Amino acid sequence: MGIFDMMSISASALSAERQRAEVISTNLANAETTHTDYGGPFVRKEVVFGESNASPFQTVFNRAGGFGAAPAGAVEITGVVDDNTPPVMRYEPGNPDADKNGFVAYPAINPISEMADLMSATRSYQLNASAVNAAKQMIQDSIDILKSS
Q1: Residue 13, class by beta-carbon neighbours within 10 Å (0-12 exposed, 13-18 middle, 19+ buried)?
Q2: pLDDT at 68
């Protein structure tokens, strides 16, 4: 694995963690949404990560063709799936979204868990940014060594 592959893998992780943070933010923003366009409460979303399936041959071939494919081992989002946890039912007979028994379905979103996930995504993003910066510094140091020879 070359230094540019390391940067490519970290860049793919940066992108994946950014998207994860966006999904978590959407969950937090809709924690009290009881009615959506599809009917019923907002459903919590989860990001599913996977590893890029590009073989070393595909990676070299795509780079030679100018496509810039991520190397094998790069992070990719394989999907954003709905959480299957049932909604939380609260007794609020005066709410317009209440059923015939006076219960309102709220999303099954725990703000504390979501904030912990958001902190994890932020920290992962920061660590990958540090890895990119370290790789850039190694490249710069190599150039400086070559210039002084």
Answers
A1: buried
A2: 55
* Core vs surface per residue 125-141: b (16+ CB within 10 A) or e: beebeebbeebeeeeee
Q: What is the pLDDT of residues 118-140, one digit of tens each?
A: 999 999 999 999 999 998 998 89
Strands 88-91 and 103-106: antiparallel
Q: What contacts 61, CB < 8 A, 6 or more positions away?
A: none
Q: pLDDT tens, 70-114?
A: 677 788 899 999 999 999 999 999 999 999 999 999 999 999 999
3-class secondary-structure state, position 87: coil
Structure pTM?
0.79
Q: Token pair of 48, please?
A: 């599913």
Q: Taking the CA atoms of 94, 98, 104 and 107 in sequence, report the sign of the dihedral they define.
A: negative
